[in-house]
Amino acid sequence: MDSKTNQPTSSDWVVRSALPSGVERIEAWFAGHGYDPHRHDTYSIGRTLAGVQSFNYKGSLCHGVPGNTLVLHPDELHDGMAGTNAGFRYRMAYVDPALIQNILGGQPLPFISGGLSNDPRLYRASEAFVQALDHPLEMLEEQDALYDLAMALHAVAGKPPGRKRLDYRAAERARAFIMEHLHSSITLEMLEQASGRERWSLSRDFRALYGTSPYRFVTLRRLDYFRSLALNGFTLVDASLAAGFHDQSHMTRHFTRSYGVSPLRWLARLRPAC
């Protein structure tokens, strides 16, 4: 990033895997500043390939280097930058917490303290998702890898502090309702009726099980749809409206908070997919 113009350097790039998968995978290189503070509702599971990948997370400046595993919890604020003048290269997989819950079956999402781990169990379990992007993941391979990842996260995080019992089935009914009515105006009252769970208890359980609030979940799913439309040639205005935002500026505010860059900068960094 050029500090005077606040624009990405010509050498900054991001490649998204175009292979069929339920997990978004990228590889990227940045000369300096990568992302402003932002938060998204997926696990960010990554590996630094070269250089030092620095980021602010939970009140500390962390440094990812080759050999350790980055594990950023859903909806936790973080940024990204080079820790040295040499820049940094990394791969990242964005794992939907619902995929982890399919395996854990209603336990609170595992939290890895500090956002970095040297535990060999996590290193091995994340290998399938941070290998070269041109390596296709067969469906059974991906499902096995998700199981291994969920088990490793659970083991390394340890048992969370005491918490009231969570109603996983009600939260999952609410999540399914959201996915079916994504382009409608959704309220907590509607989710209460769909789930059969009192609204505030549902909201609490939803956060614990899926890592974010129902409202943020809706917003991020609309941003997912916006990104798919923008990548397929829709204008930002048309993609914003089709994804359920009031206008382009409404979408841009949410996009920047969720990804740390503006939609235009995000598109400019992308290289052709594998």
TrEMBL record:
Q: What does this protein do?
A: Regulatory protein of the TOL plasmid xyl operons. XylS activates the xylXYZLTEGFJQKIH operon required for the degradation of toluene, m-xylene and p-xylene.
Query: Gene3D superfamilies given for it?
Result: Homeodomain-like
Q: Taxonomically, which superkingdom?
A: Bacteria
Claim: Transcription is one of the keywords in the record: yes
> What's the short name of a Pfam family annotated to this entry?
HTH_18
Domain (HTH araC/xylS-type): residue spans on this chain: 172-269
Q: Which keywords fit this entry according to its UniProt record? A: DNA-binding, Transcription, Transcription regulation
Give this protein's Gene Ontology molecular function annotations. Answer: DNA-binding transcription factor activity; sequence-specific DNA binding
Q: Which InterPro entries match?
A: AraC-bd, AraC_XylS_family_regulators, Homeodomain-like_sf, HTH-like, HTH_AraC
Q: Which PANTHER family does this one have?
A: HTH-TYPE TRANSCRIPTIONAL ACTIVATOR RHAS-RELATED, TRANSCRIPTIONAL REGULATORY PROTEIN
Tell me yes or no: is Transferase among this UniProt entry's keywords. Answer: no
This one is known as: AraC-type DNA-binding protein
